[in-house]
């Protein structure tokens, strides 16, 4: 097989524009929701399960996985700061029987499949009621019991303790420095969702911490003080992440309603006064690179209409950050809210129709793996039929990577696409588009590679491509110029 440069006036060599859309999925480890299937699973089985998840995500047309690595002050990766998670090994603090690092493995294998990998942290949950064993000696709540509070069936880190904030920031930065993650992600648990007794909220036990704040001259009312504590975490993480790796995206997934009455058609839980999360402020101030409000309601649901909430969030996005609603795939077939896959497809269409929204995130992976009501099948055959790139983040840098020389080189073990990549080039992905049988096909390849087997691009009936085009994409999403060659 030989290749020659495409003539500049050859219209056949011009590939179609690759769409930009965030297509993410949460992979939850708390309670072993998505992975691993049980605590203490042998390493080989755990790796196979994780590969199955990543393969299925890629086949479904997704381009990002949000992987939970700190569910409860623990770690699903090798950490010198926090103990191994019970959900991985069966006992908190116990290392895997076979030395391996799930996060390093997930990053490598996600990138090999053209998927971003975002590390998902819970900042304040210290122990989930599903945990069977005791906290490890290295767990923060064991080292400093005064930093934690029993509340309902959970144990929570106290957001009013500055040391708790420092620990979360330290943990995040440790992961950021040691792993090639594409994003840092927080979920919606800030101050805990209220526990109730006789239909009245049980106060979160932070009176001592608040009194200490007042004794030090603090003047804020208790609710404002709590919101300030959460604001400090968000703003500090944003600042410190940008110092270490400015291209890494920082995102938060808040409860889908900021306040009842915002917009007027909305009723329900008040995240501003109940869990003290002022997510609107974070979006308006540009403290996040992306926001994923959990819009787990139907298109026409009375009191929480999906489309009205999405338009409201979009109207708050004055800094033009990424806005990607969270979708409740887990409700498909659920007796409490019986949805079919058609509802989720309508929500994807609605998201595309609302200005300022450029993607969505599915919860949870299990619904896609099980293909409930053919949701994964319908996504890849419909809205996700064409591969998509994650939208660019120009506020994080808009420098385009240089376009390399490419060629098809004959090898004894098969023809190879060779890419003249320099080690200093800031390339996250190669977008490879091949033309054959009168159609274009798109592949997203890890930017660290400089050779790709041509069999990767075999089309229907193993048709040999006649044109191959390559576009480099930087870590910020900025795309370089496209180069194309004729293949014979």
Write structural notes for this entry.
This protein is α/β, with parallel strands linked by helices and 488 residues long. The chain is built from 13 helices and 22 strands. Strands 13-12-11-8-4-3-2-15-14 form a 9-stranded parallel β-sheet. Strands 1-22-21-18-19 form a 5-stranded antiparallel β-sheet, with no helix packed on it. The longest helix is centred in the middle third of the chain and has 23 residues, at 222-244.
What is the beta-strand fraction? 15-25%
Structural class: alpha/beta
Q: Using the CA coordinates, give the radius of gyration.
A: 24 Å
Q: What spatial order of strands do you see in the largest sheet?
A: 13-12-11-8-4-3-2-15-14
Tell me roughly what share of residues is in helical segments.
25-40%
Topology (SSEs and partners):
Layout: E1 3-5, E2 22-27, H1 43-59, E3 64-70, H2 86-89, H3 102-112, E4 116-121, E5 125-127, H4 140-143, E6 148-151, E7 154-157, H5 162-178, E8 183-186, E9 196-197, E10 200-201, H6 207-215, H7 222-244, E11 249-252, H8 271-274, H9 279-284, E12 290-291, H10 306-316, E13 322-323, E14 326-328, H11 341-353, E15 359-363, H12 365-369, H13 375-381, E16 406-409, E17 416-419, E18 429-436, E19 439-446, E20 451-453, E21 467-473, E22 483-487
Parallel strand pairs: 2-3, 2-15, 3-4, 4-8, 8-11, 11-12, 12-13, 14-15
Antiparallel strand pairs: 1-22, 5-7, 6-7, 9-10, 16-17, 17-20, 18-19, 18-21, 21-22
Helix pairs in contact: 1-3, 5-7
